[in-house]
C-alpha cells in the first residue's frame, strides 16, 4: 500500500528563473576536502601527464611546495558545488567568462563555493531566462582559489511570474594577461624539458599555429559517471537513462574538457598550468561510445612577472571521430556537428 | 599436456554448514588500511554528499578530529573480510540485526574482523542450514569499530552429516536507541545547515513520513565490480559471467545499500552518520543496467546524550525504475518485484 | 575552414628502429608521485589481497616501515614511462628478462625511469628490427627500485636506412636466486598465517605442483583503460576503437599480469612480494568481455638471507574461459589459443 510522500517539501527542487535576485550571494553546500585519492582518480580517468601535476619533485623544481591537484579538479569541484543551486533546472549551459585561477589546490585543502547573481534576462518566449553568476571557490583559509562567470538558461516555474529588469553584465572576451595571477614562488628557470616530455618553449609556438593532438579515447559510461560524481555534480542527466527516449546519458561537459586538456599533452606538454578560462562552448553533446580527439590553436602569447614563465592563450577543441583538426565552424559561423567543445584559456609555459 | 592440479589442497573451498561449531570464533584474513584513496573512490562510485564525510572542516565543526571515511566503507570492509569464511558457499544472505557503529574510521586506520558463530539450524531439506554470526570489526588499536549479526543459508558438503542441535539466537528487532554509541566529541550545536545542504532538523521529520529521493542512477558493471573488489569481497558471483546461463553478474547487495544511502541525501542531507543497522533484506537481485532509485520512511526518532544530536530511525528502500516511493510489499506481505533493498537503520541528525 | 596543422613538429611521433643507437641512455619523461590513491585504485581494479600490501600493521610485522604499494604498481609505472620512447611504434612486445625489484615503493615516493639500448637487430624483412633495452626505475633519492630488460619489435621509418651491426644481449633465462635483493629489514619470523589468509609455507609447495586459482573475472573496458591510464601508458591501441576494423581495444598486457597475480592469491596467498621477473610472454591478446582465470606452476624454491624468508619461482598463466589449468602449449610448442599470459617470476614466502 502506497504511503504519503513528503518529497515536495524535503528534496531540492532546484531554483527556477524567478527565484534569482540580482546581487544575491548563494552559499553552496557540501564543502569538499581533496586528497591523493582525487589525484589518482583524475589520472585514471584522463590521460593526464603534465609533469607539474604528476610529480612532487618536478613541482618543487618549479618553486611550488608540492604537486598541486590538476587545475580542472579545482574547476570541477567548485562547479559541482554550484549545480544544485544554479543549474538543476537549466536548459542549457550557455557560456563561461573571466575565469581566473588564484592559487593551486593541494591535497588536504577543503573547497567551498559561493555564487553571486550578476545578471538576469528573461527570454522573449516568457518560459525561460538567462542567469549570470560569478562563482567563487575558496579554500579552508578563506582564500579564493578560482572565480569565473557562467551563464545558464533556466526554466521559469510559473510563466506568469513578472520578468526582472534585464541586466546583462559586461564581460571581458578574454582575461587580460596582465591580470593573470601567478602561484606564489612559481619559477620556471630550472624547468626540466626532458622530464616534462617535450622541448617546445613558449617561443617555439606561433600565433595561428594549429596542433593536432593525434591521440583518441573512446568514452565509457562508467568513467564519465565516476568523474562527475567525484565532483559531486548532481545533474540527473548524466546518471539516469530513463528521462530520454533513446535512454542515453548526456556526458558532463567538464568530462570533455578534462579529456581534451589531457590529450593536448601531446604537443603542449609544457602548457603546464591553467591560469585563466576566457570562454567556452559545449558545441555538441557527447555520449558514451564517442571517440574523443583534440586540437589546439595558439591565439596569443604574453609575458608574466614570474621568472621564466610565459603565458600562452589557446583554443582547445574536442571533436568526435568524424572531426578534423582545424575545422571548427561552417560558413554560417555555426559549430560543425563533430565539434564537442571549444575552450579558450591561458596556460603558463616556460619561456 | 595437462599436469597434476593441486588446487584441492591449496585453494580455499570455503566452509560448508557442517564446518561451523556453535561458539567458535573465526579470525578473518587480510587486514586492511584505508586511506584518502578509499574515500575518493567511494565518492566516485556513489553520489555521496553528506558533508561530515566530505569535508575535514565540516567534521571539525561537529567535534570530530577530521572527516572519517563513510560508515558504509567500514561496513563493507568488515563484511568483505568475512566473505571467504562465512558466505563463499552461501545460497542466500538472509538478514542483518543488531549492527552498531562503535566509532568512526579515519584514513590511516587498519581494520580486521572476526566472527563468532552464535546460531546454527539445519533446514528440513537436509541440504542446507542457516548460520548466524556476530561479526566484529576492530581497528589497529584493537578497539571495536562495528559489530553486527548476519545469518546466511549455507550448503552442506555432505548431506549425510549429522545436524547440530538447533540454536537460533534471540535478536533484537531494532537496536534500542538508548544503546547507540556516539562518536567521542560529537556535537551538533554548531552544525551549519547551509553547508550541509538542507534545512530540515530532526524535529522537521514526522514518524510515518515517506520521502522520495527523486534521483536515479543507472548501474554499470565496471562500477559495482570496482566497489566490491575495493572491499576485498571475493564472492565469485559478482565478477564472473560464466556460472549463470544468462551470463549476468549478480551485484553485491552492499553496492545497492551504498547507492541508496547516497541517493537519500536528497531529502535526508542531515541524516549524517549511521549509528546502527536494525535489519535489512536484499529483496530482489540487482543487475547492471538497472536504474536505482530510493525512498525513505521515518520510523522513529529519539534523543541522544551528545549535544545537539538526535537519532532518526529510517527505512531505506532501493527500487529499480519500475518501483514507486512508498510501495514495498504486496497484500500477502511479499516484497514487490521492483524492490531491491529494505534497510532499517538509525542515523544521527541535528535536533 | 581548415587551418595549417603543426603536429608534424610538435607531437611525439615515437622512435623508429633506425633512431636507436647501441649504448644510448634515454631519460623518460613525466616523473610520478604515487599515493594512497594509487593503492586504493589498484585494489578496486584487481582482486588483490596479499596482506603485506593491504595492511600497514601486517607490513610492520614483516619488518617494513609501512605497507608498500603493490610491486606491479612499480612495474607498470616504470613501464608506462618508457612507452613513448620505446614502444609507441612497436609491432610487438617480445619478451622480458632479468627483472629485479630492488626496494619497495611507498606512498609519497616519486618514480622516474631511464632505458639503455643494449641490443639491436634488424629483421630479415628489412621493415622492422628488434630493440633490447634495460629499463631502470629510480625513486626521488636516486635509488633504483626496479630494473628489467625488455625487447620489442619496432618499425623502420625508412626501409632504406642502413641496418646496424646486430647485437643481441646475453640474457639470463632466470634470475639467479642468490642475487635476489631483499627489502631492508624484511623478516617473516613473526609472519601471521591466519591474517595472511592461508597456511601454506614454502615447504608445503612441491616443484612441479600446479595450482588452479579457481576464480574468474570478466573484464570491462572502463577498468582496463583506467588502469592503463593510471600508469600513464600512452599506447593508443588500448584506448581508441577507431584503428581496428573490429573496433576493439587491445588490453594492456600488464592488466592481464596484475589480474592474474591478484587471482593467484587463492592458493598462493603467502607468495607475498615479487622479487624478480624471469621472463614473460603475452601469448594471445585479451579483449573486454573475456573472463580471466589463472593457474600457477611451482618451478623452483630457494633460500634467502632474510630471516624466515624463502623464494619461490612460479609460472603464472592467465587463460580465458576456454582455458584449463595446466594446459599451456600444443605439441608443436605453440601457446594454446586460450593462454593469454605466461609469466615466470620469483616471489618471497615464509619458510
TrEMBL record, chains A, B, C:
Gene3D superfamilies on file: Hotdog Thioesterase
Superkingdom field: Bacteria
CDD domains xref list: FkbR2 (cd03451)
One of the Pfam families matching this protein, by short name: MC_hydratase
InterPro entries: HotDog_dom_sf, MC_hydratase, MCH/BMMD, Thiol_ester_hydratase_Rv0216
SUPFAM superfamilies reported for this sequence: Thioesterase/thiol ester dehydrase-isomerase
Membrane spanning residue stretches: none
GO terms assigned for molecular function: lyase activity
PANTHER family: BETA-METHYLMALYL-COA DEHYDRATASE, MONOAMINE OXIDASE-RELATED
Protein name: L-erythro-3-methylmalyl-CoA dehydratase
Origin species: Roseicyclus mahoneyensis
Amino acid at each position: 500500500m502506497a504511503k504519503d510522500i513528503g518529497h515536495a517539501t524535503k528534496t531540492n527542487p532546484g531554483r527556477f528563473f524567478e527565484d534569482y535576485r540580482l546581487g544575491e550571494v548563494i552559499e553552496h553546500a557540501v564543502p569538499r576536502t581533496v586528497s591523493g585519492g582525487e589525484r589518482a582518480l583524475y589520472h585514471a580517468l584522463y590521460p593526464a601527464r603534465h609533469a607539474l601535476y604528476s610529480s612532487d619533485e618536478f613541482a618543487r623544481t618549479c618553486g611550488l611546495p608540492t604537486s598541486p591537484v590538476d587545475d580542472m579538479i579545482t574547476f570541477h569541484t567548485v562547479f559541482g558545488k554550484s549545480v544544485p543551486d544554479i543549474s538543476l533546472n537549466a536548459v542549457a549551459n550557455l557560456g563561461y567568462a573571466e575565469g581566473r585561477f588564484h592559487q593551486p589546490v593541494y591535497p588536504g585543502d577543503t573547497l567551498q563555493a559561493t555564487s553571486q547573481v550578476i545578471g538576469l534576462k528573461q527570454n522573449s518566449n516568457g518560459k525561460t531566462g538567462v542567469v549570470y553568476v560569478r562563482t567563487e571557490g575558496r579554500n579552508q583559509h578563506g582564500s579564493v582559489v578560482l572565480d569565473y562567470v557562467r551563464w545558464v538558461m533556466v526554466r521559469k516555474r510559473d510563466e506568469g511570474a513578472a520578468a526582472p529588469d534585464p541586466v546583462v553584465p559586461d564581460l571581458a572576451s578574454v582575461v587580460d594577461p596582465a591580470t593573470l595571477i601567478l602561484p606564489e614562488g612559481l619559477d620556471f628557470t630550472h624547468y626540466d624539458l626532458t622530464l616534462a616530455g617535450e622541448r617546445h618553449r613558449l617561443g617555439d609556438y606561433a600565433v595561428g599555429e594549429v596542433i593536432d593532438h593525434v591521440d583518441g579515447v573512446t568514452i565509457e559510461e562508467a568513467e564519465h559517471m565516476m568523474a562527475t560524481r567525484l565532483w559531486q555534480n548532481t545533474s540527473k542527466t548524466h546518471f539516469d537513462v530513463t528521462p530520454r527516449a533513446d535512454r542515453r546519458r548526456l556526458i558532463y561537459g567538464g568530462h570533455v574538457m578534462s579529456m581534451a586538456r589531457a590529450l593536448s599533452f601531446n604537443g603542449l606538454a609544457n602548457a603546464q598550468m591553467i591560469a585563466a578560462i576566457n570562454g567556452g562552448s559545449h558545441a555538441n553533446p557527447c555520449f558514451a561510445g564517442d571517440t574523443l580527439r583534440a586540437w589546439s590553436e595558439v591565439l596569443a602569447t604574453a609575458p608574466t612577472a614570474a621568472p621564466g614563465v610565459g603565458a600562452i592563450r589557446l583554443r582547445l577543441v574536442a571533436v568526435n571521430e568524424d572531426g578534423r583538426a582545424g575545422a571548427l565552424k561552417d560558413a554560417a559561423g555555426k559549430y560543425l556537428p563533430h565539434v564537442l567543445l571549444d575552450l579558450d584559456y591561458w596556460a603558463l609555459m616556460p619561456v
